[in-house]
Amino acid sequence: MPNTLVHFAAQGTASRGIWRRVDARWIFLGCLLPDLPWILRRVAVGFEVPANTYDLRLYTMAQASLAVTLLLCAALALVTVAPRLVFGILGLNALLHLLIDATEIKWGNGVHLLAPFSWRMTSFDLINGEGRLILVFTVLGALLVGWEIARWRPPAIRLDLRPKRLALAAVLGTAYLLVPLAFLDGVEASDSYSVKTLREVSARPGRTVGLDRTSFIAGPNGGTVEMWNGERLRVTGPVPDHDARVSLYGTFLEPDLLRVDRYVEHRRSRDWPSYLALLLLAALWLRPLLPVRRAPAA
Length: 298
Hints:
alpha+beta, 2 domains
């Protein structure tokens, strides 16, 4: 997926074309929502939360689908004074986010637009994730949110925390957390992110796998590649002669031996722009809490 600043630039511009005077906080929050499960998964892995690696991946994919994300959009919209407007903003930006993700060239990767009717991943493979277009949109995204923070205005859409609204939002929020559990088998059957292939260790030989931005560790006999499940596999075939961040397609020769059919090496990190985007979004939401400077009286 492109970094979050790219989403801010593309979706923020599109949203402003539709809602010129709407509260920017909700536009940029909508840009983030489909990535929220992936962010939480990274936190869980980083803190070594005890969970089955494969099931956690399946749960994250199901929760990040358009249909389930719309449950979160509805829950958030219900605690505002303009629920229909906010749901429209959040829902449209969730859709745009996934469509933008699908345009990037990714290896063994994609988004779930048609779930729960189909768990087949959608990927258009149109844009190079390290091309100049991504770099331009990254800069524009930072400038756009920075401008919204600097030109601060009183929030146009305020919260509505009446008990009935909170109760309905809690029901939808609970559904957002629980509904993905009903679809884990369907996601696994689709072999999205090669979960089924990797989980069935003895059946791996002959199966293919696609890996996006994974770590390759060079060695005298080819080296090893680190999988998202924490496993390190021996690799053979065309590989770099140095440690690298790579995307690849490969075929299993043995349960722990992968033949690399083709690969590409990545030289740019997309993590730091996303971290910056999170900080800017937090600043945008916290801005109303800061004191407003008033011009001195004449």
